[in-house]
User: Fold these one by one.
Assistant:
Number 1:
Amino acid sequence: MDFNQNFFEIFQLPVEYRIDEEELSVRYRALQQSVHPDKYASATDQEKRLSVQWATQINEAFDTLKEPLSRAIYILRLQDISIENNPTLDSGFLMEQIELREELEEIETRGDAGLSTLEAYKQEVLDVMSRLQDEFSKACSNDIAKAEYAVYKMQFINRLIVAADRLEEKRLDY
């Protein structure tokens, strides 16, 4: 167990945005089984502590890599790029965000807007996210500034997806 490994190395995956999420899950379960505290019940206190620390590291790595946005941010972090809280984005993109936010607010305030309207909105936003993920993936290898910019956009779109999911839950009385 090497605590200096990056999250991709823990799961023996290449440092790439597009990963096989099923393979990630399979490797996660195998690693968790190998370090599960129950396997160390009769071990020394130090071995028990290491088991818990390693299990925690595996969980953090898995949680980071399984989510596309957190995986993108992590890839940037591996290249010593940290994401700013208030980035400057182009006005065209910001206007698109305002329009999408207003569209969601309109769906929320209109009582007659059914789930099909909300689903169509969510699909529109998911399509934008997919485009940005492709942009990030392509830019990672040759234009890290463009990749960073794509992550900032992905963060905005992710907030819209979360808000749409909340509205859907509210509409479905979850």
Number 2:
Amino acid sequence: MPLVSGFEQILLQRKADQEEQRRVCGNCYDKSGIGFVLVNEMGEKIKLDYLSRALPRIQRKHGLRQIRIHDLRHSHASLLIEMGFSPLLISERLGHEDIKTTLQTYSHLYPDKQAEVAAKLQSLF
């Protein structure tokens, strides 16, 4: 998928940092984490439960509403729907095998779309 502007540089810097950590650590560096973005200084892959525990601390620190990591996925999909992107594109982005999954999961976000369709059709007449 194409990256949002600026993320490429962040990821390239992350990779350079990891290569430097690997050089400094030598044989102690865990090579199983090579190619992964989320690894610690020793190359060990960061586990999902670490992120799940860290997110609430970050949210409190910055005065953000408490949500789970998985809720970020729903927020992303909701924003894409609100921006008017097609359900097929959203389904592909979320990795759903079938567009029905996307439509069933996010159908509650489409009720105003019927009024929008009617208004656009009305404008044609």
Number 3:
Amino acid sequence: MSSPYRVFGVELSPFSVKIRSYFRYKQIPHEWVVRNASSMADYQKYAKIPIVPLVVTPDEEALQDSTPIMERMDAFFPDPSTHPDEPITRFLSLLLEEFGDEWGNKWMFHLRWAREEDQLSAGGRIAATMAPPGDEGARTAIREKVVERMTGRGFFVGSNEVTAPQIEASFRSSLELLDRHLADRPYLFGGRPSWGDFGLWGQIYNAWTDPTGAAWVEAAAPSVLAWIHRMLNPTNEGEFESWATLSDTLMPFLSEQVGALFCPWTVANAEAMATGAQEFSVELAGQTFTQQPQKYHAKSLKTLRENYAAVADKSGLDPVLEAAGCLSALQG
């Protein structure tokens, strides 16, 4: 395999930058290809579905969906490892990667499209990649279409007038909890990045590129801000820590965000999909959260449960998951 991998993506896609950060850390030879007007024909040649990231291997195989891409690359490039050796932290890393992809995406999408200043910022940056260079009229027209389309898709992440305060409170609380945790270590699980870092970071980084997200991060979370910058080109700065040294500051995040919000939400979503419901409501930390069910979320919960079932020795893991409020959701 003489040619490098090609990673088609865009900066405003949390899943694209997640994979780019992963490739950079693994030092996998690759070319970052911005999906724009000039690269669209090449992208469409390989893409099976119209999403990014798209990874084209040296053998011209097309890979899509960020988590399966990392699974595939781990098999080819096992070192440096992005999985803690300890069974507890290894699974928690997978859990946080899933949390980032599914619940963290609510933060990013809502913050990007709920307020006019964020809409114009993101819409303008997207339009700049699609319009002919120097054509300001085309850029403005594309920006208006992008904003119109995306502001009408809040249902996809459950963003609406009722849930908006819940999503924003979750993001701001997470910043505070993560800031305390990251004050004493460069990455979530110690001296090197894990799957949990890549999944959570892609969403928070993208939120930070927008005006509202940037203001909230920079005002309240200096350690998170340093981690955001660090994860753009992560390096190995030490070993993974054990749960014993992580628990004091990571458990509050696990219990308040993953156990209290994400786990009951993803179970309710899966149940709604199974019954064919058009909408579902679930009590999250004493408040009702309502949205349309999403097929992919149900599929990813199934995979997460399979990963949990595959843990050979759960004697240390189960008490942690029980304390965090996650165990019943994972046991199904």
